[in-house]
Every structure is written in structure tokens, then in C-alpha cells.
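Feature request, filed as a ticket because there's no other form

It would be nice if the structure record came with a short human-readable summary line next to the C-alpha cells. Right now we just get the raw output. Example of a typical job, pasted below so the devs can see what we mean:
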Amino acid sequence: RRTAPKSEVSASGHAPGMQRVASTAAQRIGDDGEDLAAARLENAGWTVLARNLRLGRDEVDLLGVDPGPPAALVIVEVRRRGRRDFGLAEETLDHRKRTALRRACARLLEAGTLPDGRRLPALPLRVDLVAIDPGPDGRPSVRHHRGIRP
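Raw output as currently delivered:
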């Protein structure tokens, strides 16, 4: 298990050039969700290659390697809701975000490398969704949807 090197991630946990001037409550909820998702994936044997990866005007929350079987390079979209009043976290993955995910997939495959120059693993690409919202007991409810259609 490996986490993205510090050179790729700033102290705030974001890719270089992605520093936030001020964090809103929603941004903090999202950042906490990404931290939780990354920790869960690493505990399941995944290698997280990058977090908050900028690909043109689009951003990939997490890029990792699922050891499988079968092994895959995975773009992970993390959606987190602080409350369930307006639905589940999965419901926030709208057509605009799906379009952005398709663009990010194309840019990533076209580049063949990460921004720091490391080559992408020669594995099939998959897109997963990790949805997080408060469970009935107040602890986060985490659902991992593998192989979604962006």
C-alpha cells in the first residue's frame, strides 16, 4: 500500500496549484469524504496514486490501483453529503459531473503519465463512485459502486 508522494499533494491534501483560499463547510465535508475514501481503499489493499488530480479543467478526486482480481487503474469519484434531507450522495452525480469524468478519463489515457511524470500502470481503466452520507447511528455510511458509467 502506498499513498501519493508529498510532491504531488500540498499540505492541504490538494494537488499543486489547487490551494483553496478559504474552505467552506461543504469543501471541508468533501475533503473529509476523500480522506475517508482513500483510507478505506488503502485498507482494502489499493494503492492511491494521486488525489485531487487536475486534468485540464477537470479534477479527479482519487486515482488508484485496485489489485483485483482483475487489477485495474481506477478513477474514484467521491460524493459526500453532510445530511440526508435532500437525498443520497449518489444522487449528486449529475450529467455535468459525468461529462467531466469522461473528459478526465480521455485526458488521463491520452497523457499516459501523471503530472509528476510517472507512467500510468498498464491496466484497464475503470470509474468507481464512493458515496458517503450519515448513517442512522451518526457514523458515515460508505457505499462503493464499482464500474459506473460516467
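Something like this underneath would help us a lot:
DSSP finds two helices and five strands in the chain.
The two ends are 27 Å apart (CA to CA).
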